[in-house]
Write a structure and sequence with these properties.
Order of helices and strands of chain A: EEEHEEEEEEEHEEEHHHHEHEH
Helix content of chain A: 25-40%
Distance between the termini of chain A: 13 Å
Shape of chain A: globular
CATH class of the largest domain in chain A: Alpha Beta
Largest sheet of chain A: 6 strands, mixed
Structural class of chain A: alpha/beta
Largest interface: A-B, 43 and 43 residues
Number of helices of chain A: 8
CATH architecture of the largest domain in chain A: 2-Layer Sandwich
Oligomer: homodimer
Strand content of chain A: 25-35%
CATH superfamily of the largest domain in chain A: 2-keto-3-deoxy-galactonokinase, substrate binding domain
């Protein structure tokens, strides 16, 4: 039986232990993402060691493990194919990459790709969509993060999606640019987040507006303590503007951790839109759904 | 008399030696920008040492030196006021910051600021505009660089301007982001520059399109050797789109070094616009004009 699901990303290894009814009974998180694996030696052996060190005690011979995320990429353990958009999310269970390891069957979840009108890819988020998407409605779903994913869903099919690298842009602007040099550490000022948000949402000149983080300080229109919040607002405002082009819906479903979803919910609601739901444990729900689907076949 | 003009920026110290007719007779460039000066000790003394070490032999007691660029900022030697937009560029000679040093008069050129509809600042580029702008026409002028400046000029007045941090964004994305990790060193492929340019110019979703640098490679729609050119095209296309909002002119004047102006000219002409002129030594022309203006008073 399938006892374990692993969401193995670039930075983090997250494992979930399920019972025979696909209910979660244990979980663990380790800073052992695929980026941390030394690519100068045999990465397969390293991935195997990590997996059995962390979750070996949950497994018996003949069991299966589901693996999802960047572990299924070209830099991972076992590269899986992509399902192409529009993609029936329930079909991912039919396209698992399979391999045996120490008497345990490893089942690698495929990613989703889009070729037109632009190229895009996801690995890991498809499982979150599987666990949480309505099979009866159209939905606009956002998974905020380093590389936010926006997905336009319709009756359980991913119609189209877009990666918007807002989180990464925020971090590198704060830490590597002259623009971020004026920002003070850790300060958060709500009013400047809102000012940035409104500007980022309405502008069609976001590269120019990035410089406003600096120019506004020099012109004493923004305190240095507000730079971080203002930049965050500016980028999230632009992201919401860009992401909503996928679907005209004014309600948005949020998937992610509490801190980031709080910030996005504040932004979405300030712009007069609605958050239809917030989901934290979408990967767990996705594994559980996939285990149930496979068992019923 | 005024014998020397110094364009003293963040990274570079450039000095020009003029004769009594304001013609250039010598010049030098040193990697001694204000960023290189150690802010833990007395920066004034360091600036003074650099100036007299580099150009002391050009000066006699009673001479004057013009200084422009970041040396006139709060982090520089002598902070000058800003002239506010719309600003008559010929008026900068009336607002020089003055101080005496080793028997030589130092004349610091003011920067230009804009308060509305958005805050923006320039220090150094105003001198380039003084040296090169038409006093009889409207012009759209671009000074490409780390922080590109776009200026809408009308009969010698800076009507409005905008800083677009294209060059900085390009560098930090290439060197600090996951997006740039796929780029190979130094490759340049014209066709991918053009593909990025066309997309960057027409899109209103530039943050999303940044991720296309990566997604296109993963989906085998862009070779790794083309990432650098594609990203450059994407950002310059967006910059031209954003900058032209200042003035509907379809002709653009370029000020800057040959390599960068080549790239911008290629982009501008590919988009069906016209380059009205290209000017390399705009700072020299600016100092020369300012020296002549001051002498005639």
């Amino acid at each position: 039986m399938i006892r374990v699901g692993v969401d193995w990303g670039s930075s983090t290894f997250r494992a979930y232990h399920f019972d025979e009814n696909a209910n979660i009974i244990d979980s663990l998180t380790r800073p052992l993402g695929i980026k941390q694996v030394n690519s100068n030696s045999d990465t397969s052996t390293q991935f195997e060691d990590i997996l059995f060190t962390e979750v070996g005690s949950w497994l018996q011979s003949g069991d299966s493990v589901l693996l999802s995320g960047m572990i299924t990429s070209a830099n991972g353990w076992h590269e899986t194919e992509y399902l192409e958009c529009p993609a029936d999310i329930a079909a991912i269970g039919n396209h698992l990459g399979k391999t045996l390891c120490r008497g345990v069957q490893l089942l690698f979840v495929p990613g989703i790709c889009q070729r037109s009108p632009y190229a895009d890819v996801m690995r890991g988020e498809e499982l979150q969509l599987l666990g949480t998407s309505s099979t009866t409605d159209a939905e606009l779903v956002v998974m905020p993060g380093t590389h936010s994913k926006w997905a336009s869903m319709d009756h359980g099919t991913i119609q189209s999606f877009r990666t918007i690298p807002t989180g990464e842009l925020y971090q590198i602007l704060l830490h590597n640019s002259l623009i971020g040099q004026l920002a003070t550490p850790n300060d958060w000022l709500h009013e400047h987040f809102i000012a940035g948000l409104e500007l980022g949402h309405k502008t069609n000149r976001i590269i120019s507006e990035l410089f406003s983080c600096r120019a506004n300080v020099l012109m004493k229109q923004l305190p240095e303590e507000g730079v971080r919040s203002y930049l965050s607002g500016l980028l999230i405002g632009a992201e919401i503007n860009e992401g909503r082009i996928l679907q005209p819906s004014s309600t948005i479903k949020l998937i992610g951790d509490d801190m980031l979803c709080d910030r996005y919910q504040t932004a979405i609601e300030h712009l007069g839109l609605t958050v239809s739901a917030r989901i934290i444990d979408a990967s767990v729900q996705g594994f559980s759904r996939l285990i149930t689907d496979i068992k019923q076949r």
